[in-house]
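To: structure desk
From: M.T.
Subject: fold request, one chain
Message: Could you run this one when you get a chance? Sequence is below, nothing fancy, just the single chain.
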Amino acid sequence: MAGPSQNEDDGGVRTGPATSKSLKYAEVITSPDQLKDVPPGETLVTTNHEVIRTWAEEREAQPATVPGTEHGDHLGVLTFDFPGYGGEKLRHVSWDEWFRTFDERRLNFIFQEKMKDGTASNFFRLENPEREDA
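Reply: Done. Structure tokens follow.
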């Protein structure tokens, strides 16, 4: 298992004073090819845009933000709009906008590929290791 010390430019994790304890046990994913070999129920983490986009597109999820959480002209809370999950209250954004904000905030994408029963999981969380209130 790769550790969180991997270079974030390769999709490794970003660390800081508010890094979550769950990252200690998460497998670092740096390429979409790694997703097919992940055991069910495993906690994963990446900063790799290709991995995140592949994961979302496999679930037909659209990059989105929560209206009313903007900071001036900057996007607010980042999320995904999954089909069938009440996303009418979300605002779709481009992948470029989503990833620009993701990188500016130095976020980690913590996620699960499959649930323990082997079905696809929509679980994800965004973490800013610099701030506890990300």
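Reply (cont.): The CA atoms of residues 75 and 101 lie 7 Å apart. Let me know if you need anything else for the meeting.
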